[in-house]
Amino acid sequence: MLSRRQREAARMIFEGRREEEVAEGCGVLVNTVRRWARRPAFGEEMKRLEEEGVRRTRQIVRRYGFAAAAKLVELLQSEKAEVARRAALDLLDRCLRVVSEGGEVKGSESPAVSEAEAMRMLMILAEGQREEASKEGQREA
Question: What are the backbone dihedrals phi and psi of residue 105, each rounded to the nearest 5 degrees, phi first?
């Protein structure tokens, strides 16, 4: 069982604070912080903090993931070719990341895209880039 100061030290370390800052914030010597950090209970607290961070991140993604995806789709229509290209790549990257090499979905939180669908998306993206380049060429002429 960790004391309140030890839990605070773990939180500060988890947040990326330097040992000196942690020691000062907890009112102890740096060597004390180092000794605490070697305790199994301290490691368990760090793991708990990490799991809590993952849980909170998943909550945020569940809450705002759809809005973020919708924004990327909106950005596909950007008049700036580079913005549209990056949005398309981000969407493809996210979709393809959830499909393993064997074709099985790695995670259930995101939709899987088959290789054929991904190729179709890439072809549409390439066609859009050709059309954009053609329009820019006509404007310059």
Answer: -70, 130
